[in-house]
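Sample A.
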Amino acid sequence: MYLTSPTLNVLVTQALGMYQDKAGPVKMVAFDADADSVSIPEDFLGVAVVLDSEGRWHEANIDAENLVIVAQRHKSRKPYKIWYFVNMRGMAIGSGVLPLESVSILFDYLHALIDIPNTQRAKEVAAATGLQLDLPDPETLKQRKDLLEQAMEDCQSIIPMATVY
C-alpha cells in the first residue's frame, strides 16, 4: 500500500458520499404510541416520508432538536413512523455504523478507489526500480469504479408508499 492515512480517510469519505448520492439509504424511526415528536437522529439528512398507523402521509416540521408531526384533523392515527435519508458524509469514520446493506458494496468501491492511485504509484516504483510488474491500466480501474457506482444506483432504498387524503 502506497497511500498515506490522510489519503485513505479522504477515500473513505468519498466512498460514503458516493453511496449516499447513488443509493440514498433510508432508516425508519417509530414513534411512541402517544408521541407527536421524536428527537432528530444523529445520522439524519432529510425526511423521506412520514406515515401514521394507517399508512396516511403526514408532514413533519424540523425544529432545533425534534421532528414534529403535523397532525391532520380527524384523520391522523398514532403511532407515527418516519423514514429519513441517512447522512453518510457526516458519519464518524472510526465509530459510525453503516447500514448493513451497504457494507459489501462500500468495501468493493473503496477497494476500487484505493486501487487507482495505488496502482499508479506502484507503476512509478516499478519504473524507478526496473521491476517488471503486470498491473491493470487506468481505464480498466476506472471502468471497475464506474460499474460499482452503477451497482450502488441499483441498491436504491425503497421508500414506503403513502396514502394522501
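Sample B.
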Amino acid sequence: MSNQEPQNQNKTAEEAGVEKRRRFIKGAAAATPVILTLASTSVFGQEECLSQQMSGNASGTTGSCVKGHLPAFWKDPVNRNSWPTGFDYGTALDNPASTTDCNRYSGGTTFNDPIAFGSGVGFISPTPTESIRVILCTSITSPAAIWSAALLNSVTIPSYILSKAQVLDLWNGGAAPIADKLLFLQSTMQ
C-alpha cells in the first residue's frame, strides 16, 4: 500500500501541472488579439509618427514617418519649386537661372496669410507680416523660420511627423513654453 500512495501524489502533481499549462495556453490565446493589435500599423499615420517622435522611438520602422527639411532648404531659391501649391516663394527680380540669392526675389506668401498661419494666436508677437521667404532669408534660426519650415514640411511631405493641423495646433495653443515647442520642431527636421 505504501507504494501506491506516492503514485497517487505524483498523479495529483501531474494533474496540477497540466491544469497550469492549460491556464497558460488559455491566457496566451486571449492575449493574442491584443498583441496583434499593438503590432499593427495605425490608420492615423501622422498621429503614429507624432507618437513615435514624442516617445523617442528609435525603432526605425521603414516608411512610417520621416523628418522634414531644415529652414535652409526652404530658403534656397533652387528649391522654390518644392513649395506646396498655394504657397508662393516670390518672383525673381532678374533672370532666375542666375539668381541663387533669396533676396533677389520679391513678394511671396506672407507668414500671416490665411493659407499659412493666418491670424491665429501664435507665439510670435506680433505675428510677422513679411513673406515666408523674407523670414527665411533673414535668419534660418529665427522662431518664425522654424515655424515656417515645419508648416512647409507638413504640407509637402506626406510622411512628415506632423500634419498641417498639428503644426497649427502647436502654433495656436498648448501650455508648453515656446522654447520647448521650437526645440521639438527642430527635432522633426534634418
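B remarks: The first strand starts at residue 91 and ends at 92. Confidence is low (pLDDT under 50) at residues 31-47.
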